[in-house]
Amino acid sequence: MLRLIRRLEDVRPDALLEAGLPLPLARLLWARGVRTQAEAQAFLHPSLDDLHDPLRMHGMAQAVLAVREAMAKNRPMVVYGDYDVDGVCASALLVEALRSHGAHADVYTPSRHREGYGLNVEAVERLAARYALLISVDCGINAFAPAEAAAKRGMTLVITDHHEPADRLPDAAAVVNPLLGAYPFRRLCGAGVAWKLVWALFGREAAEPLLELAALATVADMVPLLGENRIIVAHGLRQLNRTRRAGLRALIEAAGLADKTVTAGHLGFQLAPRINAGGRLAEAGRSVEMLLTQDEALARRVAEDLNAQNAERQRLEAQIVQQAEIWVRENVDFLSERALVVVGRAWNPGVVGLAASRLAERFAWPAVVLTEQDGMCTGSARSIPGVNIFQALSRCADLFERFGGHAQAAGVTLKTENVPAFRRRLSEAVEAVAEPEAFVPAAAYDLEASLDEITVPLIEQLDRLAPTGFGNPAPVFRLTDARVLEARAVGSEGKHLRLRLAQAGTALDGIAFGQGEARSRLPERVDVLFSPSVNEWMGRRSAQCEVERLLPHSPRDAFAADCLARADAFDLALLEAVLDGRPMDAAAPPPDEAAARLREGWQGTLLTVRTLEGARRACAWLERLGLADRVDYCFGRPQDPRRFHTLCAMPQPGAQEGFAHAYALDDARVPAALAAWLPDDNALRALYRALRAGVLSSEAALSRACGLRPAAVRLGLTAFAELSLIDYQPAPFRVLMLPAVKCRLEESAALRAVRARAEKAEEEYA
């Protein structure tokens, strides 16, 4: 089940077209709020001159006064950061700037495992004994008790943060936050705010060499790459690609990017995870040390350690996700539960947030992953579009020791004894705050496209949207009704899929990363969601598709074609069901009732068909009622535990498990389907003669030799085995002829059962 959502309005942005921009780029810019030629120029050519004066930010002037006073009096100061990439980069750039201008500045990075996020009273009290000024970065906006502790001990406190403030502010010499006051751009990350503080203190020229750190943090912290963030990242990337910073060079080399142009994607998916791994598995302070040091050997040692920790993080994450997914599949009723709450014994608390993200992605369901130790559970929640997880958690606040977060992510701590109540109440809360279709997986795209439109010049125009990422995603096109000319698995263990797609006389190569296993089940005609890119090989530049999703052009048509290709399998499945004594021949369901079930939601209704004709009729019925896109299609039994409405052909035992309603659409037609291939006595005698003549290699060979359908051959072999004429097993196929004995075919229980079923009068299909 998948909903496709088009992000772009079908508008014609004439003002942008008059500037000479191609229509796709103009529409993409329009969707990003660009309305005029001047705005387009500013977006496509990010300039530092378009950054806002940092003194316009709430609390910035007071922060500058407090820091300058401490510097003038040579008072020791400490920068207190967070253990993620944003906090690490913010700490490094601010400390470097302060030291380069003569300040006595140190850095303090709390331990994720011992102290948790943000300022804490114990750390503040220890630091107050050594430092006169504490500057928080990427934290502190709601640190009321630590602010009181600092004041009691006579330490000046300057808070710089970008998180949501409460109704009141901590008591501090300055509270700097773009969400306060009327600052023109409100979505800076913590390092962006710290970079603005450096600018306010020492001037823009002093701040510019630190843009590479601000850029890394901006991408990693998932703030939108628009406005000031876009400018910071664009200029920071240029700087980073020629960086002289020993730590960044070592990190780039450890990530295998030394010979590549580093992009925003590399920052988010290769550099940032390595820095984060330090805080997740060990101490983030070493990452700050790496970014500050000029010692090449030290930088390489730390980068190699981070690389190893990241590999270990990946291993732990995969292990937790595997265990959590098994638990979800075995224990969650997706028809009634609207959130996944999984608890593991002593799972690494630095990794559970990543595991929650993977579960939310895998199931498209809000997910909470908790680690339990000594009667307490600590963990993280991740949500899906349309579900504000912070609002949902707020309805369970009485169960928590503490919690906090925002619409898509949060952290919680609660007693283990409260987990059952939390699981139940969170599901109820999510149901209350969720948008109606939030639980139907969705994929977004920007524009429809045909293959002949995807050219190198167009891609070069679209590349002007870079740096892309959160808030400014790379454009995604939808290609409909393309033919798959070639599909082959490539890369390590066939992990990726190399494609050749064709449409209306145009063919284009494509690469689907991480989708190598899809090769065996690709339909001939597909719809493709992809980002266009340029492939460079042997000096030749050509357009290609970077495929996000491969979908059947028409799931109904693909299912119908697959059914037709499995005609013999339908017969064999019917034979197996009859021989197993499974109940069939149910009355035809009221079609209005089944249709109403499909229309009233997206989950819980199973439709089954046992015959090829039944499958054809069911597909036509769904199409006629406009319901073909409201069901999944499968053979045997549904694999998706979310139990979306499904049409299942050749249902196996247990196929109905987990569904609220099940309708057998064609069981009344089973007798006729059996009669269509049921062999008579003469046909069975011919089959036995073929066996005696030495046709013993396979059921297919017997089918060809006797002109019987495979199910008739299998029924005959089963009957002969019951009559002690042969020793037979179907898989792996084996037939051993036994000495001939006098017998009658009607003595076979299998043959009697199938013939009895076939003789039943066929009921009319409603």
From TrEMBL:
Residues 340-431 form the DHHA1 domain. One of its GO terms (biological process) is DNA repair. Residues 445-548 form the RecJ OB domain. Residues 77-217 form the DDH domain. Keywords: Coiled coil, Exonuclease, Hydrolase, Nuclease. NCBIfam families: recJ (TIGR00644). Belongs to the RecJ family. This is Single-stranded-DNA-specific exonuclease RecJ. It comes from Candidatus Avichristensenella intestinipullorum.
